[in-house]
Design goal:
The chain is mainly alpha-helical. The chain contains six helices and two strands. A two-stranded antiparallel sheet has the order 1-2. A hairpin with a 5-residue loop joins β1 and β2.
Length: 242
């Protein structure tokens, strides 16, 4: 069935909240939820496996902790650049999209229907994430594997950007919910806690850990540099006295 929208364009009835949200051309998913979740999990396993092989070939002596961080950034880069980039490009036709990424987004949209309505904040945030944090995450993979000195400054920048975007993502939805009385998530608890909260909270927890790692590494480096400078100054003073 269809119903007229505010603009007069026929809308397909849909299961998303708010129920009056305009999702033009909505088509129900062909894939089941288990199929979508298993496909996503399988893709993650493949990404981790290929990256692990690459890391071991390029730098077999890389510490296990750094290897895990490298795996995190290649996963982040893949999601940011390909999955979120897909949304940024195809946001206007998400309701009718029946390819794999489109159906994954429609499943996630049960927890946040803004992804099916070209909502301005979500579109801008996801576009920036795909254009900046996606490619830079892949750059970080290489910097980590090669132990490049720019690794930690860039790691702080990318991780900080991820946290900032996530906080704004939560905040804008909360503002609309409490101030405007608009809810974008279906009432089932698993959509809110499983999709909306848990999946996004990962991009606060892990980036916080990577920022801590980089800050402490930079701190140790500056302390070592200060000690070296003091020793060089002391040696220079001794030579002048002699």
């Amino acid at each position: 069935m269809s119903a007229p929208s505010k603009s007069g364009v026929p809308l397909q009835l849909h299961p998303y909240y708010p129920l009056e949200a305009e999702i033009v051309g909505y088509l129900a998913n062909d894939y089941t939820v288990p199929q979508l979740l298993l496909t996503f999990a399988g893709a993650c396993v493949v990404i981790f496996a290929l990256t692990s092989v690459l890391v071991k070939r390029v730098n077999p002596r890389l510490a296990r902790g750094d290897e895990l961080v490298a795996l995190w950034f290649v996963l982040s880069g893949s999601i940011h650049f390909f999955f979120e980039g897909y949304f940024a490009i195809n946001h206007a036709r998400m309701g009718s999209s029946q390819d794999l990424f489109g159906q994954m987004w429609k499943e996630y949209a049960h927890s946040d229907s803004r992804y099916l309505t070209s909502e301005s904040f979500v579109l801008c945030m996801e576009s920036i994430t795909a254009a900046l944090w996606g490619p830079l995450s892949f750059v970080l993979l290489w910097l980590i594997v090669t132990s490049h000195p720019l690794r930690h400054p860039l790691q702080i920048i990318v991780s900080g950007g991820q946290i900032y975007g996530d906080i704004l993502y939560y905040a804008t939805a909360m503002f609309d919910h409490y101030h405007k009385g608009v809810t974008y998530c279906r009432p089932e608890a698993y959509y809110f806690w499983g999709y909306y909260f848990a999946l996004n909270f990962i991009w606060i927890v892990i980036p916080s850990m990577t920022i801590y790692q980089s800050v402490t590494s930079c701190s140790r480096a500056f302390k070592a540099l200060d000690k070296m400078s003091l020793r060089l100054q002391a040696n220079g003073s001794v030579k002048k006295v002699l």
